[in-house]
# Entry
Amino acid sequence: HDLRVEGMVRGAVTVGGTLVLSVTGSIEGDVACRSAALAGRLLGNIVAQEKVVLEEKSVVQGDLRARDLVIQEGALFQGNCAMERE
# Structure
């Protein structure tokens, strides 16, 4: 299933579908998902099977692993990135 976060989550998040982190959303913990669209703040590592989009106001601090990555102008990403093809 998909998950939309508009508030604060502390702890690990596992989503079988798409994770949408709104501008007002914040996650402090590791994330595993199929794909993600991040506009808020993520403090933790993220592993996505498919695509991750860091939108213009997003702040991501942690390592990221995904098949495809889009970083829009204005996004802040601090960490290591690994992109893997199947």
